[in-house]
């Protein structure tokens, strides 16, 4: 009998994180979901998993998620790091506190749980970490300054992590969504996409599903755009 695989999803109570949890559960993973709203607990329970109500800015809350998986199943095979929303202002109106908040939301949200699961994955000699980033990590938009800057840093972190842990068969990749249906839709944004539509959270989840699968076993350190071609020339 094949060993049960386990996936943890942070900020997974709604949007792309929740859709990733649903898709991984459908793929046969046992799931643990962290969310600040409590929705993650209800979502995970639907699929025979468990949830933690807490913040991905809290090492203690993240430890409860990882410890819960280890107590139940004794392993962690996949970690999906989603995020909330950081400060948005004109770039020079952002205070030091705003920048620190953006780093907490968009960069350290991935670093903190990665510290916790990597030793587990090293012992298993397998594991995959997938960070939900943004299509604007490499072609930044003034609309999302803290997101773009922090996630450019996340791209560098991902490459260094991949270099360091590939020999342990641990992979890390970033998914870079463009305009997705979990965001408010506008005609201007839609018209700026070559495919002339918003993407869906299910399409992001399908990409995450692939990256978590054995079919992606030779993919690490990558930033994969799922944006309808909006950053096609970069």
Please, could you describe this protein's structure?
Strands 3-2-1-4-5-6-7 form a seven-stranded parallel sheet, with helices on both faces. Helices cover 43% and strands 16% of the residues. It has eight helices and seven strands; from the N terminus they run βαβαβαβααβαβααβ. Helix 6 links the parallel strand 5 and strand 6 (170-177). The mean pLDDT is 93. Helix 1 crosses helix 8 and helix 4 (96-106) crosses helix 6 (145-165).
List keywords for this structure.
NAD(P)-bd_dom_sf, alpha/beta, SDR_fam, globular, 234 residues, SDR, single chain, SDR family oxidoreductase, 16% strand, 7-stranded parallel beta sheet, 8 helices
Distance between the termini: 45 Å
Specify the biggest β-sheet.
Answer: 7 strands, parallel
The proportion of residues forming helix, as a percent range, comes to 40-55%
Strand content: 15-25%
Indicate the radius of gyration in whole angstroms. Answer: 17 Å
User: Structural class, please?
Assistant: alpha/beta
Which strand order does the major sheet show? Answer: 3-2-1-4-5-6-7
Shape: globular
Order of helices and strands: EHEHEHEHHEHEHHE
Organism: Shinella curvata
Pfam families: adh_short_C2
InterPro entries: NAD(P)-bd_dom_sf, SDR, SDR_fam
Protein name: SDR family oxidoreductase
């Amino acid at each position: 009998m094949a060993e049960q695989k386990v996936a943890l999803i942070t900020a997974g109570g709604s949007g792309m994180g929740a859709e990733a949890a649903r898709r991984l559960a459908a793929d046969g993973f046992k799931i643990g979901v962290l969310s600040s709203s409590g929705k993650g607990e209800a979502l995970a329970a639907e699929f025979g998993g468990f949830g933690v109500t807490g913040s991905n800015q809290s090492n203690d809350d993240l430890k409860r998620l990882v410890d819960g998986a280890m107590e139940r199943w004794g392993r962690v095979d996949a970690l999906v790091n989603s995020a909330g929303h950081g400060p948005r202002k004109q770039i020079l109106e952002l205070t030091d506190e705003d920048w620190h908040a953006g780093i907490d939301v968009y960069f350290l949200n991935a670093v903190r749980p990665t510290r916790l699961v990597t030793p587990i994955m090293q012992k298993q000699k397998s594991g995959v970490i997938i960070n939900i980033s943004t299509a604007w990590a490499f072609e930044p938009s003034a609309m999302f300054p803290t997101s773009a800057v922090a996630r450019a840093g996340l791209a560098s972190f991902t490459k260094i992590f991949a270099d360091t842990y590939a020999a342990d068969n641990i992979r890390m990749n970033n998914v870079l969504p463009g305009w997705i249906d979990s965001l408010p839709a506008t005609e201007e944004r839609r018209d700026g996409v070559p495919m002339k539509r918003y993407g869906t959270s299910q399409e992001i989840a399908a990409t995450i599903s692939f990256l978590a699968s054995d079919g992606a076993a030779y993919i690490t350190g990558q930033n994969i755009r799922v944006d309808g071609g909006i950053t096609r020339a970069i």
